[in-house]
Amino acid sequence: MSDNKRPSFAAAAFVIFFLCFAMYAQIFIIGEDWITHITLIVVAVVASIVAILSGFTYDEVQEGILYGCKIAMLPMLILMMVGVLVGSWIPAGTIPTLIYYGLSFISPSVFLLTVAIVCMVASVATGSSWTTGATFGVAFMGIGLGLGIPGAMTAGAVISGSIFGDKMSPLSDSTNLAAGVAEADLFDHIRSMFYTTGPAALISLVLYAILGMRFAGGEIDTAQIDVILNGLSENFFISPITLIPPIVVVILAVKRMSGLAVMMIAAILGGIFAIAFQGYSVGDVANFMNYGFTSATGIEEVDSLLSRGGLQSMMWTISLGFIALSMGGILEKTKVLEVLLERIGGLVSTTRGLITTHVVSAIAVNIFSASQYMAILIPSRMFVPAYKKQRLLPQVNSRTSEDSGTVVSPLVPWGLCGVFFTGALGVPTMEYFPYVFLSFITPVIAVVYSFIGFAMFKEGDIKSVKTYNPVKEPAMSEE
């Protein structure tokens, strides 16, 4: 591909404007939340036409598409295995045990704190903020109202806890997507997020503890919790033994084993446990891994929580990842992003400017596109050249995507997450808005770190599975 070919600034800006307009039209004019794939295909076609009119050949455009697919391949394979893993961990009793122990810590004196912690545990275990909000969240809303705690406060604690797992769990689609788009190793990405999400989570928990003190002394009606606990204990093997698979995941992650290999091992281990402790046949387990587990306890809360997983359940996100990264490959290889970055070069020429611009851009994309996926995908790929130029590691890019794209999504009233949580919890977005502490604190920490230079990992600073400049990686003495 010739280095001399490049679109004009007007052409590059038109492509990005069309992307924003297309997403706006999808959500607000057509009124369809789940046709993002088709919207992105249309945008990719328009971007291809603009590239060809700018002097690129179709073969060069196709090279960009294949480049994007190559980037998507490993993280999408990991996402496939995440579906398989969840489909085996539920019948194995692993996820039911994590949920059972989490609910057992309910305490009247620290209700809001407990809500946040339990939702953190549940969302890390399931990898889904929506599942946690629609199950634990609904139960906690009823309990909180019974205690006289404002619904907005309870909803805020539920959402903060839920999105914590949506960021930190290796089972989360957004976590895998952010790592894949930024070309970061999955577990390097998660380790990097501990620097920002960890302190944000601790501060949030302290605030919920303080906020909940004035409601101490009330008595919790544990009827709803007991229903879930009894349903779990009567239908699944609840035991610390079933926690061996997640322990293995942690150990292998610490040893820096490939994320794909870790998911495969953990899924197979879950399948073995399902056969050994739950009495399922090999055929049953294979079906759970492929199509997901369907809980049939007769208890709505339990069945809603545990009917999920399976390879096929991940295909919506996987296909979105391939299409979005194909579009991103076109924008990158036809230099649309490069041309735009040159115009804002002053903003991203320093680490503090790059991180701040990335955070603001992700929040803006969240607002205009109503999609956390787009807030992760677009800024992350757009700023790869800037991260590469500053020799920052890919996990700084992926971490920043989640510090702004993922955590802010529940605060957008017309966004997918905002609409979902409002519907599930029965509290308008603008009412729970002030109490979702994790969503405010995390982006602030990300920007503050960039100004003080903390956790801005560059090549050679720490051991990293992937870098943007692998040829130069051995130069440990470079600043």
TrEMBL record:
Pfam families reported in the protein's UniProt record:
Na_H_antiporter
Q: Which residue intervals define the domain Na+/H+ antiporter NhaC-like C-terminal in the entry?
A: 163-454
Give the domain of life.
Bacteria
Q: Which UniProt keywords apply?
A: Antiport, Cell membrane, Membrane, Transmembrane, Transmembrane helix, Transport
Q: How does it sit in the membrane?
A: Multi-pass membrane protein
Recall the GO molecular function terms of this protein's record: antiporter activity
Q: Where in the cell is it found?
A: Cell membrane
**Does the keyword Flavoprotein belong to this entry?**
no
Residue spans crossing the bilayer: 12-31, 38-58, 64-86, 98-124, 136-159, 194-216, 236-254, 261-280, 314-332, 407-426, 432-457
Q: Which GO terms describe its cellular component?
A: plasma membrane
Q: Which family does it belong to?
A: Belongs to the NhaC Na(+)/H(+) (TC 2.A.35) antiporter family.
Q: Which PANTHER family match?
A: MALATE-2H(+)/NA(+)-LACTATE ANTIPORTER, MALATE-2H(+)_NA(+)-LACTATE ANTIPORTER
What name is this protein filed under?
Transporter, NhaC family
